[in-house]
Amino acid sequence: MSDSRPAPVELRDACIVAAREAIAAHGIEHLSLRDVARRLGVSHQAPYKHYPSRDHLLAEVVRRCFEGFAAYLDGREHFDDPVQDLDSLGRRYMEYARSHPLEYRLMFGTPWPAAAEHPGLARDALHAFEILRNVLRRLHGDGPGQCERVDMDALFIWSTIHGLVGVLDGNCADKLGIAPLVMDQAVAQIMDKVRLGLGLPPACS
Amino acid sequence: MSDSRPAPVELRDACIVAAREAIAAHGIEHLSLRDVARRLGVSHQAPYKHYPSRDHLLAEVVRRCFEGFAAYLDGREHFDDPVQDLDSLGRRYMEYARSHPLEYRLMFGTPWPAAAEHPGLARDALHAFEILRNVLRRLHGDGPGQCERVDMDALFIWSTIHGLVGVLDGNCADKLGIAPLVMDQAVAQIMDKVRLGLGLPPACS
C-alpha cells in the first residue's frame, strides 16, 4: 500500500485506520506497530512518533470507537418524554451494535490495554454511559437520592440490550427452533418487558 | 508432554483435553490437529482417527461445553414453584458463566464450525435452552398457544442474564463510577426487574 503513503501530519490518523484494518483482518492479538507501519508504507519507527507502544495505539482505536458510538447515540430521534427517549436510545443502541460489529466488539468484547495508562479511553466510555444516565435522570430526578436507582436501572437496560445483541447475533439463536414471528418481534417486545421491569407502562406502539 | 502419552482407547477424550488447553493458551483460531497431536506426544496422524478435521474436534469441544453447562443447570436447587425455580436457574446460569469463562466464551462468544456438519453441537445447545423453556412451560402452560410466550420470555431472560455477565465481567463497568452497593446488588435487583418484566411480582428475598 505504498501508494497511500501519508504525509507526517496525517500519520496519527492513518495509523488508526491501518490498525482497524489490521484488527479486522487478523484479530486484535496480532496488532503491532510494525504491521501498521508496513500497511502504511512508512518506516518501522514512524508510528512511534505518535504512539509510544502498541497498547497506546489500541487504546486510541477503542477510544475513537466510544467517541463514534456516543455521537451515534446522540444522533437518535430525541423526545421530551424520557420514556419515549429511553425507547429511542435503546433502538439506536441496537442499530449501532448490529451495523458496527467490529467497533462493538472492540468496546465490549475484547480485553483493553491497561486503563490507568489510557485515561482518555475510560473517559470516553463514561461519556457514552452518561447518555443513558441522563435520560434516566430526567425520568427519576437528578437528586443525590436517585443516583443508585439511576445506575441500577442503567445496568438493567444496558445488560438486556447488550445481551439481546449477543443472543440475536450469536451462534445459537437460529438453531433453537424459535418461531420466526418471535425472532422478528424480539427487539420490540423485550424493550416492552424492560419498561415493565422499570415499573413503567408498556409502549402503546 | 510425552510422559502422558495416552492409550489409543483414550485418545478421543485426550484430544478434547489437549484442544481446550491449546485454546486457553493460544486462542481458538490457532487450534490445529497437529498442535493437539504434539501436545499429546502422538503422531500427527493419530487424532485424525477420531476427528476428520480441526472443525470436527472444535465442534466436539464446544458440544461438551453445552453438555457440562446443561448438567450444571440441572444441578441447581429445584423448586416446585416455577417462579422460584426460574430464580434458581438464573442464579445458577450466572454462577456457571462467571466460574467457567472459557467454556462460556466457547459456547456464546466465538464462531462455531459450520453447524450443518455437526448436528450434535446444535442438539446439545438446544438441550440447554430447553431447561429454561421447561421452567417457563410450568409457569405459562404447555399448550401450543403458549409456545410464543414461552420463547419470548426465554429470550428476554437469557438476554438479560447473558448481558449482565458481559457487563459485569467486561472492561467498562468498574470505570463508570457506579457505587459499590449498586454493583453488589446488581444480580439480585436485576433478577427482580426480570420478574417484573415477565409480569410476575418481585421476589420477597
Describe the protein's architecture and organization.
The structure is a homodimer of 205-residue chains. The first copy, chain A, has eight helices and no strands. Chain A has 205 residues and is mostly helical. The first copy, chain A, has two domains: 1-51, Arc Repressor Mutant, subunit A, CATH 1.10.10; 64-197, Orthogonal Bundle (Tetracycline Repressor, domain 2), CATH 1.10.357.10. The termini of chain A are far apart. In chain A, 35% of the residues are buried. At the A-B interface, helix 6, helix 7 and helix 8 of A face helix 6, helix 7 and helix 8 of B.
Mean pLDDT of chain A comes to: 91
Class of secondary structure makeup of chain A: mainly alpha
Q: Could you spell the SSE succession of chain A in H and E letters?
A: HHHHHHHH
Gyration radius of chain A, in Å: 20 Å
How many angstroms does the end-to-end distance of chain A come to? 51 Å
What's this model, at a glance?
2 copies of one chain form a homodimer. Chain A is mainly α and 205 residues long.
What are its keywords?
homodimer, mainly alpha, Arc Repressor Mutant, subunit A, 2 domains, globular
Layout: helices, strands, pairs:
Two copies of one chain form a homodimer.
Chain A (H helix, E strand, L loop, with lengths): L7 H19 L6 H8 L13 H21 L7 H18 L1 H8 L10 H22 L6 H23 L10 H18 L8
Helix pairs in contact in A: 1-2, 1-3, 3-4, 3-5, 3-6, 4-6, 4-7, 6-7, 7-8
